[in-house]
Amino acid sequence: MEKIIVEGKNKLFGEISIGGMKNSALPVLYACLLTEGECIIKNVPEVSDIINTLEILRGLGAEAVFCDKNTVRINAKYATNIIKHPDLVSKMRASYYLMGALLARFGYVNINLPGGCNFGERPIEQHLKGFETMGAKCTQNEGKIEIKARKKLKSHKLTLDKISVGATINMVIASVFLDGITLIENCAIEPHVDDLIRFLNKCGAKIARSGRTICIRGVKKLNGTEYRIFPDMIEALTYVCFTAIAGGSVTLHSIEPSHLKYCISIFDNMGIKLSVYDKSLCVSRIGNMKGADVVTAPYPLFPTDMHPQFSALLCYSENGGSVKDDIFPTRFAYVNELKKLGANIDLIGNVAFVNNSEMKGTALDATDLRAGASLVAASLGAEGRSEINNVNFIVRGYENLVEKLSSLGGKIKLLNN
Ligand code: EPU
């Protein structure tokens, strides 16, 4: 079992590049199943969720490989809808994009329910409502779901009851070939949604987004293309937390500043020094840091995927603050782990009230991807040595985390034992 060892209280200095966005790359890779030609997808992070996705695609009969550093080549011409790796499908959340992609291409999919980070109930009824609206029948049975086109699927107008990244993306993928015009309202507008739309349009789709409404004019086929994935906003923001906790000064390259606006204004108010230069962000923390109160909400507001890392940050602020998660109200398993380090946190319902804390390194267990990042963050500022177990969660979404932090002077290593 691998573990990450961190010696705290070492400042970070230097520069790193932020990788491509995992949560954009995943739907784009699944959407390649809709295309007839070869797709070359650049800036794909080499993390375990992506590696498993390529395995799932190969299991369907597609060619799907890393052909160069962070570049994936996919040719899905001979893909089928027979899923050879149900175990991998059950392990990850994004495998639910197979529902939209295989329904659009074959009119039929029979698939295990998706897994992914476990922070409470993660329903998919909005996805199913959408498939039903376009004329499919969805039947759930013993952890599997069968989605079948009753007859030819039809364009439609759908209002999502809940803003959902996954349901929005699945609706876009599933609707690309429907005759006529499909309108989807109350959509998620995370950069991952726009990344997918840009990719599909480059392949020949006709999709436009205006506010929370997406309009899809059906096309007969999609061609292969070359496409570059957006930078990972969550990775960038996580490194802001790392630097603010450890102290020092770090420049993050290859970022997209417009995606970070809301969080930058929060960090700025806390006294963290941030300067944006074109596609780079310089972060430094010299003196004390003030606290803040945040509430997670769909983009462009505070992302739930920054919630655990932000709680770690608040432990090092002068006057503390709070994090309320309205998107995943039970995403708090990390709190007990932070408490092992000495964090002074009161969890009341879906709000963590975090006070300034004396943090001391100890043995910790990552409970999910962002929780793992929160423990790394907290350990960077703690006195002494921390040992973080369940590294498999962290490598789902952070590429070369140990290497990147080491290159900044962090005392961190990966132990295999
Ligand atoms: N929801 C429903 N019904 C549905 C779908 C969603 O009630 O049919 C609810 C959820 O329970 C939640 C809210 O809607 O309260 C938003 O969920 P969403 O569907 O947007 O989440 P997701 O698609 O399951 C993706 C990311 C998550 C990220 C969320 C929110 C991927 C593969 N996953 O999940 O990423 O937290 O959007 O932004 O893109 C991560 O990267 O660590 C991660 C967990």
The percentage of residues in β strands lies in: 25-35%
Average residue-wise pLDDT: 96
How do the strands line up in the largest sheet? 21-22-1-23
Q: Main β-sheet, in a few words? A: 4 strands, mixed
| Separate helix tally | 14
Describe the structure.
The protein has 417 residues and is of the alpha+beta class. Helices cover 33% and strands 28% of the residues. The chain contains 14 helices and 23 strands. The protein has helices spanning 22-31, 48-59, 86-91, 97-106, 125-133, 165-175, 191-202, 233-246, 257-269, 307-315, 334-340, 369-381, 391-394, 401-407; strands at 2-7, 12-17, 38-42, 63-68, 71-75, 108-112, 136-141, 144-149, 157-159, 181-185, 206-210, 213-217, 226-228, 248-253, 273-277, 280-285, 293-296, 321-325, 344-348, 351-355, 363-365, 385-389, 411-416. The strands form 6 sheets. A 4-stranded mixed β-sheet has the order 21-22-1-23, with helices on one face. A 4-stranded mixed β-sheet has the order 2-14-16-15. A 4-stranded mixed β-sheet has the order 4-5-3-13. A hairpin with a 2-residue loop joins β7 and β8. α6 (165-175) runs parallel beside α7 (191-202) and α8 packs parallel to α10 (307-315). The longest helix is centred in the middle third of the chain and has 14 residues, at 233-246. The protein starts with a strand and ends with a strand. The model has no long low-confidence stretch (mean pLDDT 96). It binds uridine-diphosphate-2(N-acetylglucosaminyl) butyric acid. Residues 23, 26, 93-94, 117, 122-127, 162, 164-167, 188, 304-305, 327-328, 369-370, 397 line the site of uridine-diphosphate-2(N-acetylglucosaminyl) butyric acid (EPU).
